[in-house]
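Entries read chain and fold; for instance:
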Amino acid sequence: MSTTDTDDGTGRAAAEPAAAKRHIGVSADGELGEAGSQLSTAPVDTAVPGSFGGMRAPGPAGALAWTGREAVGWARWFWRQLTSMRVALILLFLLSLGAIPGSLIPQSGTDAQKVADFKDAHSILGPVYDRLGLFHVYSSVWFSAIYILLFVSLIGCIVPRTWGFVGQLRGRPPGAPKRLDRLPAYATWRTAAEPEQVRAAALQVLGRRRFRAHVEKDAVAAEKGYLRETGNLLFHIALVVMLVAFAWGQLFKSEGNKLIVEGDGFSNTLSQYDDFKSGNLFGSDDLTPFSFDLKKFTGTYERTGPNKGTPRTYQAAVTYSVGAYGKDRKTLVKVNEPLRIGDSKVYLTAHGYAPVVTVRNGKGDVVFHDAVPMLPLDPNVTSQGAIKVMDGYRNGRGQPEQLGFSAVFVPTFAGAGKGTMFSQFPALDFPVLALTGYHGSLGVDAGIPQNVYQLDKSKMKQFKDAKGDILAARLLPGETMKLPDGAGSITFDKGVKQWANFQVTQQPGSDWALAGAFTAIFGLAGSLFIQRRRVWVRATTGADGVTVVEMAGLGRSESARLPEELGDLAALVHEQAPTKTDEPDAGTDPDAGTDPAAEPDADSDTTDPDPHAVPAAEGAEKQ
């Protein structure tokens, strides 16, 4: 078996790619025919913008027909552009750019107060951003247009490619072209085996390598790498699933927060939330029916070392029930370990303290007794808040009034004269409550919502002692601050409760979005790393009666793996159809001596090969 390639010394027929074959994509259409086509289902855009109407016939009928052809032609051209990969990538890039303002500029659906503050602080940019829809990016017209166009582009790309791929799966690999030696990977040799035996051996070898193979005329046609197109289609389908999931989640999502003090409960209704926001299509009937009580909150912290004060345990013991008559169940809600109830997730998001205070009037009657949540200001849970007595209080003169106290609470006080009123540690080691009292009108009767952690002092007067100084005190648990002029007293009770803030979310479509993301990753990996290739094995009887074997391979793109793989396949087929060596001429005297030192004739093909090596396949370099 003569060859123009080189033997790699391992018994495999090495099939080298020909440098002159780089024009294979051109010759595929002209000479390879069907064999060089359909290695991909990507549509080929041959339409160019221009006059689609052709020649216009005279008269109104001709003008109408020309207009129709022109409109249809332009519509088809725009559709091809929209469903092209180039436009899809541009739309995906625009969608990514459009999401940037949504993360940098306050959004009305997330925090309306920040939007109002931004408008007040930026008198010029505020109106401009408002007109451009930058305060509600994800529901703006321009963002929705990009989103919908990308969705249509992907659908228009997926449907025809899917049908084309199904047709390829139902069909057979195309037959061998006439000139196998024009393909980028090629090998040939002569064998004594019959052509039928060679084709049978080739079918067996290709089948073991998981090629789809069949015999057509005088050659075996095989193809492999269909998972490449499968991965490509999966990637596109996964993008559509992600887009639908994100849209579904934005339209039907809900998110609410509720601060609950130990011993209190919550029912999943709109009136129970401290704040609540939802998607445009979400309704109150979509809330999952459940309720729960906060039994106890447990928080432990590092006592020593560089991480002193760092939380070690944050967990809330709750008892919950599903539905109106559900059975009570106990569980622990931890950070990043939410309670899942139906489509809702209950997250533990914050924690603080709620000192219990008792307010009495001048007669000693209790007019207020409750745990008052305080808002943490730093990692050591230095907290501030407001105590508001709105009903049932009368001053020393018997006149109805309202009381308010500005409060600062520290769970671990450093001690008097040792610094400002800041906590030294987040645990309840040395709790102190600092109070300043006011009387008058809290402004709640006007019906205007107020911050529960702040006092509206515009209609209130501050209590002062007998010396005319501002009345203020630091109370330890069990201590009482007397109010002047028989106005009563306020007591810091010994019990200090804790509170936990829970976020209840419903995000439909999140599981589908996650599944789509993973599918897109695997599909993209398959489309990038799997090569679609075809192999043909032709066995014909030559003019001298000896079988000539030709093997060739064609891939979607040039790759060093294709010649290597063809060499492996050629070696396996060669084992069952070995090279036929030339026999000595009949007229030669077998007893005639030869000079052992004589060099063999350069044109002779009678040199004994290595019995353990497979001669290299003959390459078809085209100069």
Residues 1-30, 585-623 have pLDDT under 50 and may be disordered. The chain has four domains: 50-82, 84-165, 181-225+531-576, 254-302+309-506. DSSP finds ten helices and 22 strands in the chain.
